[in-house]
Amino acid sequence: MNVNVKEKRIAIFVSGEGTNMLNIIKYFEDRTGISIPLVFCSNANAKALDHVREYNIDAYILNKEDLYNSDKIINELQDKDIDLIILAGFMWMIPDNLITAFPDQMINIHPALLPQYGGKGMYGKKVHEAVIENKESETGMTIHYVNENYDEGKIIFQAKLPILDSDTPESIAAKVKELEFEHYPKVIEDLLLNLN
């Protein structure tokens, strides 16, 4: 094994409970060569921050001024030598300067089969309600690169599941979450292993 291989470093952006974030942290906890030195959170009261403290990861509470009107976040990410930025339930639009600074190094997860049921306002339960209302036969989750528009970046990976007559928005949400937990960390790992 080449001992000079550089450690790959992840930053996670989160807004709420942080279930996907925690799943990713646990997945990489015992893997060598990949670390998560930094989490950005847009909500100072988010439950996600409890998990961040538990794992002794640096947390940065985002405010809109820092994100949209300065290079503070870019500088922080560059100072920490971040290779990949993971959005895990992050509810704010990513500004162009951040996308430009980290081209094809920022990914997001969405609880539907994009390009359907994406875009501004389509998140969480609203997605699953729309899927049922439109009598879709299947749904799933999408992992994609982040660009300047909500949920429109190049698709990296999708996983599907059938919708049953008995399904509710809540039951679909639970099944989609299982797909997210199963696949998001593995896709992240594959992307990191293929980085130069």
Number of strands: 7
CATH class: Alpha Beta
Strand content: 15-25%
What's the helix count?
A: 7
Q: Which residues form runs of ≥5 with pLDDT under 50?
A: none
Rg, nearest Å = 17 Å
Helix-strand string:
EHEHEHHEHEHEEH
Q: If classified by CATH, what would the architecture be?
A: 3-Layer(aba) Sandwich
The CATH topology label is Rossmann fold
Query: What is the CATH homology-level superfamily?
Result: Formyl transferase, N-terminal domain
**How many angstroms separate the termini?**
16 Å
| Overall form | globular
> What's the number of structural domains?
1
Strand order of the largest sheet: 3-2-1-4-5-6-7
* Classification by helices and strands: alpha/beta
Mean pLDDT: 94
| Main sheet: strands, sense, barrel | 7 strands, mixed
Helix content, binned percent: 25-40%
How do the helices and strands line up, and which of them pair or pack?
Blueprint: E1 8-14, H1 19-28, E2 34-41, H2 48-54, E3 58-61, H3 64-68, H4 72-79, E4 84-87, H5 96-101, E5 106-110, H6 125-133, E6 138-145, E7 155-162, H7 169-193
Helix pairs in contact: 1-7, 6-7
